[in-house]
Amino acid sequence: MGIWILILKRQRSPIHLVWRTNKPTKPIMASSSSLLFESILTPLLLLTTFFPSSSSLAGAVNPPFHPRDVLPLLPRQLSWPILNSLHSAVDLLPTFVGAASVSALSSNHTLDWKGACFYENSAWVEFHNKSGSEFGGGTLHIKMSKAHSWTCMDIYVFATPYRVTWDYYFLAREHTLEFEAWEGKAEFEYVKQKGVSIFLMQAGMLGTLQALWEVFPLFTNTGWGENSNLAFLKKHMGATFEQRPQPWVTNITVDDIHSGDFLAISKIRGRWGGFESLEKWVTGSYAGHTAVCLRDSEGKLWVGESGHENEEGEDIIAVLPWDEWWDFELNKDDSNPQIALLPLHPDIRAKFNETAAWEYARSMDGKPYGYHNMIFSWIDTIEGNYPPPLDAHLVASVMTVWNQMQPAYAANLWNEALNKRLGTQGLDLPNILVETEKRGSSFDELLTIPEQDDWLYSDGKSTSCVAFILEMYKEAGLFDPISSSIEVTEFTIKDAYILKFFEDDPNRLPKWCNDGDTVKLPFCQIRGKYRMELPGYNTVEPYPHMNERCPSLPPKYSRSLNC
């Protein structure tokens, strides 16, 4: 007796359904629930495949179901591979569709857009004073129609600088979202001038849940988490992660390591593994952490690192003996780090002022990690640094959420840095956004203002892992004679390892470098199961105002000349 087999082919056009019969060579076991789902959903899938949509036949009725809406109800073995191909962690990011303006103040007050479920949507804001407060409140009207099926729904996020909320919509009609009272004059004026920002979850409810399923393991310290991080970076960056032959730890001769040699680190599981995967995706860096080597006057080898976790769980700048640092990476770091040593070129090493480097390292030892300016090394342009669907509107909304949930954390991450760019002090995020608009500028322009290395924050100079190393290089004379026109806090990790500072003659690399590997890298990978990639490694000479206006869009992350 034959059975029906459903084959879903993912092509550039929408999913195609192909049916054929086949006789199994072995009995196929299925649970009663699976058979029930198949018996119910098979005709529904057929119906949605061949039922004409309203866009193809004038006056035709929308299909009752869309294949993507009912996929999760199919047996897991069939549905999940398809869902995984359709959705990814990136689908958790909402897309900015526009700002709904106040109807009474604008002749063209209606915002129109196409949703994921409802293809015709419009929105506008109406002021009222139902609360009897000084500045009243408002109603956001959202009119939806032309759903692509009866089972779909749209999820939206709504934001002003003072609040973020969300809702989902299943029915084609006019919906309302009430703002009982504005948060004072500032929010009232902002909405009057700029409206309420609307963001669409493009993947819909099921796609969002599937994206959550992909994001969750990125941060888990498991084999599942490691595989998820590798899959994410392969999918979104084109990374390969080729497996190296064993041994995966190099037998290092420490005497071959010198002051200024750069350590590039890629963590692929656990909390830091997940964070680094997202950082790599937005910046184009194939490493997520860095450290630097230093020798003291007695010849002892040390490692300087911004981002070392102390006994209190705080991320600080630390200078550690090599043996202590290496032992931790080999035996205690549960993120399964892949580590490469990037030796300086002999001519660059000859310029390296070891005394100045140590003075800088000691002045920073024990200070907090540089969270203040971390995101600003990534954002250089208005549109060229945001992988879709990221944009400045979404960044502002995420900041707003954090500002409400963790105001002290938000102040540490960006408020002080944004105040620096405005020349103000003590403004919180809502007032930063309002002040920016008052000056005739925009938030996306504010984010692109270059960081200045000499800016002092409430806890001193702020240096991320790579900024700490490059500031040391700057103090040690490696950027001379253009040092005064280089702001190293604008550099990402990729910007650091593409500098033409490193050894370019494989014959001068230590004998143990890449020992046993069938591929001879231009640097020394000293730990890791997977072969590290550093695209663009050691290719760019420093130039004035380097990396202040560089785009960085995946998957190629191409940079413009002298950006």
Automatic annotation (TrEMBL):
The name under which this protein is listed is Inositol-1,4,5-trisphosphate 5-phosphatase
Species whose genome carries this gene: Cannabis sativa (Hemp)
